[in-house]
Amino acid sequence: MAGYLDRIGAGKILVDSEPLSFDWLPNELVGRDDALGEIASMFMGIESPNFSGRAIVIGPVGSGKTAIVRRFSDDLTKHLVDTRRILPVHINCRNHPTTSQVLQRIAQHLDHRHPERGFSPGEIIQSIRRNLQNSGRHMLLVLDEVSVLLQREGDNLLYQLLRIDEGREETGTLSLILVSQEPMVHLFEAAVKSRFGQSNRIKLNPYKEEGLRAIVEQRTSAACRKGSVRDDAKSRIAGFAAETGDARLAIELLESAIRRAEKKGENEVSPEHVEPSSTRGAGIEPDMVDSLNNHQKMCLLALCRRLRREESVTSGDAERLYHVVCEEFEQESRGHTSFWGYIKRLEEIGFILAETSNTPKGRGRTTLIRAANILPATVEKRLEKDLNRTSIV
Ligand SMILES: Nc1ncnc2c1ncn2[C@@H]1O[C@H](COP(=O)(O)OP(=O)(O)OP(=O)(O)O)[C@@H](O)[C@H]1O
Ligand SMILES: [Mg+2]
């Protein structure tokens, strides 16, 4: 028997890693009953056939926007199962940033077919409407990170979606929830203000230490052997994460502490396993970001936005994302050679790792970029704040 495999499956601490993944949605969210209640109150009447609801959810990174909206969609769909057929559709506009991509995603949810080519968005929306009416369903559409779409293409899609039933006999085809990070709100304020009343808006605050502690507690009980994570370790995690109020950071810190303890062959996670300065920790000195020039910052921001969700990004994608960020901050993007200069600089400082590898399909080689000593979500937040400040001056 290969001894080096002994630890695999030994699971002294971890029983199930699933609850530590970002996609894991607990049945009960911790400490967000008020926010859920507020959303529910905006959808009062949704059990009747002609009702359409609207809501905007804003808040900082990791404040639970996506989790809350997903929880609400699932709970509502189940709650109304005998009353009204709800079709929840959650689209992240960061991954689908154009009108046609969003419409394509919606069409896929409806009947797994792509919208036919050559039709205008208005025509596709009407065919979506017919499909929903014919099948007796009401779509609860969530456009998450909607500011990415608004920045690229303006508010035309929102406008058309909100008018989907205009001039028609049957109404109540679609409810819409928009989700956005707080620093981006000014971007779509004007676009949607008149169509979403002030009262249809929920603002989430960053989590405080005790809220984060409760989230860590919940993940620990779902993922770990009972009693295998010490209380003082949980408190230390909550304390570190409270600096930003980001629940995602708390979960990341818990996960890396568990891995560290298991790697050492220990039976429990203690405070010394909780390290914010590891590769997955918040080990970045703030002034290291501040010392970058604006284009290096925009380049790093582009990388963080992708690396927050994915293990790596190709250099080609990174360059395209950099152009999008430049547009967002209304700065002219620099050419390919300068872009490579920024990547090299970020690598020198130790923010990222860039390695060349063979492309998975076909010939050729590509450079893959990964995060090194940073937590992308945390750095992203910091850079956004910083760039917003400099673009105002
Ligand atoms: N109240 C809560 N109870 C349990 N888990 C939570 C809670 N709030 C957030 N989480 C978890 O924390 C992580 C981050 O939350 P979420 O993705 O909803 O943040 P967000 O506000 O959408 O962040 P971003 O702006 O980066 O998209 C997720 O794994 C989520 O499940
Ligand atoms: Mg989110």
Class inferred from helices and paired strands: alpha/beta
Strand order of the largest sheet: 2-3-4-1-5
CATH superfamily of the largest domain: P-loop containing nucleotide triphosphate hydrolases
Low confidence ranges? 277-283
Write down the secondary-structure element order. Answer: HEHEHHEHHEHEHHHHHEHHEEH
Q: How much of the sequence is in beta strands?
A: 5-15%
Q: pLDDT average, as an integer?
A: 86
Helical percent range? 40-55%
Q: In one word, what is the shape?
A: globular
Determine the CATH topology of the largest domain. Answer: Rossmann fold
The CATH architecture of the largest domain is 3-Layer(aba) Sandwich
Total number of distinct structural domains: 3
Secondary structure tally: strands: 8
The rounded distance between the terminal residues' Cα atoms is 65 Å
Instruction: List the ligand species.
Output: adenosine-5'-triphosphate, magnesium ion
Largest sheet: 5 strands, parallel
Radius of gyration, CA atoms, in whole angstroms: 23 Å
Number of helices: 15
What's the helix and strand layout?
Blueprint lengths: L32 H10 L11 E6 L5 H15 L5 E8 L6 H13 L9 H15 L1 E8 L1 H8 L2 H7 L11 E8 L3 H9 L7 E3 L5 H15 L7 H11 L5 H17 L22 H5 L3 H14 L4 E3 H14 L7 H14 L2 E7 L6 E7 L4 H17 L1
Parallel strand pairs: 1-4, 1-5, 2-3, 3-4
Antiparallel strand pairs: 6-8, 7-8
Helix pairs in contact: 1-2, 3-4, 8-9, 8-10, 9-10, 12-13, 12-14, 12-15
This protein binds adenosine-5'-triphosphate and magnesium ion.
